[in-house]
């Protein structure tokens, strides 16, 4: 009996044969793995074919002496990476341009015709590169810079009127007054200051009132003198 109990426990611990459900799951897993392997092989084959095509395009570009640069159609990230690698192996220069992923493309250049910063900036802005136009813009920029430097060396501009306003309006203020004003203005220019005499009355109110009272008393005394006394 004990031996039968031991055999029964061993049999119950052994893995049971898979049911119909488990067999279907395994079949689907095998099919999925087969499809994945096929896709991987297909992708690998496409990469190899694309690289061979890019190698041929780059080789034709190198052999064509009339071409200094070549623009390719928009590519995805993987294709651009393959092309950049082919260009680097060939000893050329390449750049990617375009704002979004769908329109991003690659341009390749021969080493002796590597693009300048101005040319790269034009491509980044979506513009066509025009060497003559760029040279004209560079020349105008240098000219403007030289003019600005010369203007800075000259210093601030000094305005010198053709005529003195005192001479222009002498018929209104009088020739003598115009001469005195002109003389005063020349003195002010020479010494860089305004004389006290040219300023407004600097007396205090009390001093001005005392002077007025003194003048008034003087007039009264003159009126009351021998020649100015009235009859009774």
Automatic annotation (TrEMBL):
It comes from Gopherus evgoodei (Goodes thornscrub tortoise). InterPro entries: R3H_dom, R3H_dom_sf, R3H_sperm-antigen, SPAG7. It holds the Pfam family R3H. Residues 23-51 have a biased composition (Basic and acidic residues). Residues 48-111 form the R3H domain. The gene is SPAG7. GO terms for molecular function: nucleic acid binding. This is Sperm-associated antigen 7 homolog. PROSITE patterns: R3H. Residues 1-51, 212-232 are annotated as: Disordered.
């Amino acid at each position: 009996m004990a031996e039968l109990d031991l055999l029964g426990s061993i049999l119950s611990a052994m893995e049971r044969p898979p049911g119909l459900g488990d067999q279907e799951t395994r079949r689907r897993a095998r099919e999925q793995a087969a499809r994945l392997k096929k896709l991987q092989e297909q992708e690998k084959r496409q990469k190899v074919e694309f690289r061979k095509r890019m190698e041929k395009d780059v080789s034709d570009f190198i052999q064509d002496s009339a071409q200094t640069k070549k623009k390719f159609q928009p590519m995805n990230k993987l294709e651009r990476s393959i092309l950049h690698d082919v260009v680097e192996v060939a000893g050329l220069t390449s750049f990617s341009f375009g704002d979004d992923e769908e329109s991003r493309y690659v341009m390749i250049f021969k080493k002796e015709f590597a693009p300048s910063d101005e040319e790269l900036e034009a491509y980044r802005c979506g513009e066509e590169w025009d060497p003559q136009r760029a040279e004209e813009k560079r020349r105008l920029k240098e000219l403007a810079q030289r003019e600005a430097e010369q203007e800075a060396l000259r210093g601030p501009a000094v305005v010198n009127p053709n005529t003195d306003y005192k001479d222009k309006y002498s018929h209104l203020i009088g020739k003598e007054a115009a001469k005195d004003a002109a003389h005063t203005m020349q003195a002010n220019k020479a010494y860089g200051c305004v004389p006290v005499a040219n300023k407004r009355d600097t007396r205090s109110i009390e001093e001005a009132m005392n002077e007025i009272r003194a003048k008034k008393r003087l007039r009264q005394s003159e009126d009351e003198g021998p020649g100015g006394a009235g009859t009774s």
